[in-house]
């Protein structure tokens, strides 16, 4: 039986970074510049000319300036304090070119999805018409080269957590069908889990299992939240 793809699953949504959008604009600018150079070369058929006579850098700079000046997502950086600055840099938007509009976005798009765990903060989102459309990267989340959000986990083998090596970063697709425990499980100095049973999570479910069945554990209890939300003491 085939399963229907979930459009809100983070394996079906990718981040278009500023660099990616800027490189597209750069391509547009270079294409315009190439056209101008060809036209000028055709006009000056038998004349002697230098590259400086043909190349006009303003063609390229005007495209870049208009991108930063007129793009829907272009904003002045919030420099009230260091936290405001880093929070602004880690903000993600579902609005803008190639994205959704506030009017069209339904409840499902705005809702918290189980794949947001450790990737998008469920707390830090504005109130009002933008709720759920503008979100923040979680503390340890990073965007991979393909544009998918990854979050780190520690490997578990036969009930022993790998505490010596670096954590493994998983995308939402790689995390499917993996049993993952919380970072608060008690372990000894060698990483062996001391509980007889642990509460794990797999996709949207929370089974109680033996530690030997686990695949991964979280790296930290605040992994679920963003930088500013994880600074709140006794967060519930």
TrEMBL record:
Residues 75-143 form the RNA polymerase Rpb2 domain. GO terms for biological process: DNA-templated transcription. Keywords: DNA-directed RNA polymerase, Nucleotidyltransferase, Transcription, Transferase. It comes from the Bacteria. One of its GO terms (molecular function) is DNA-directed RNA polymerase activity. Its EC number is 2.7.7.6. Residues 153-220 form the DNA-directed RNA polymerase beta subunit external domain. One of its GO terms (cellular component) is DNA-directed RNA polymerase complex. Belongs to the RNA polymerase beta chain family. This is DNA-directed RNA polymerase.
């Amino acid at each position: 039986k085939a399963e229907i793809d979930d459009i809100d699953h983070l394996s079906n949504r990718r981040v278009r970074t500023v660099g990616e959008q800027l490189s597209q604009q750069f391509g547009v600018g270079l294409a315009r510049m190439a056209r101008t150079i060809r036209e000028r070369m055709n006009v000056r058929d038998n004349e002697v000319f230098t590259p400086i006579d043909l190349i006009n850098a303003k063609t390229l700079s005007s495209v870049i300036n208009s991108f930063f000046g007129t793009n829907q997502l272009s904003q002045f950086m919030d420099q009230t304090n260091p936290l405001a600055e880093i929070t602004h840099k880690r903000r993600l938007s579902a609005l803008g070119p190639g994205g959704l509009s506030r009017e069209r976005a339904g409840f499902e798009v705005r809702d918290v999805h189980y794949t947001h765990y450790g990737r998008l903060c469920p707390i830090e989102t504005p109130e009002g018409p933008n709720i759920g459309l503008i979100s923040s990267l979680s503390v340890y989340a990073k965007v991979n080269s393909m544009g998918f959000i990854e979050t780190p986990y520690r490997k578990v083998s036969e009930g022993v957590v790998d505490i010596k090596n670096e954590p493994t970063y998983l995308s939402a697709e790689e995390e499917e069908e993996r049993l993952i425990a919380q970072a608060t499980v008690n372990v000894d100095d060698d990483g062996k889990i001391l509980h007889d049973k642990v509460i794990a999570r797999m996709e949207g479910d929370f089974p109680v299992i033996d530690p030997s069945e686990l695949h991964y554990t979280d790296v930290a209890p605040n992994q679920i939240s963003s930088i500013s939300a994880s600074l709140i003491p006794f967060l519930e």
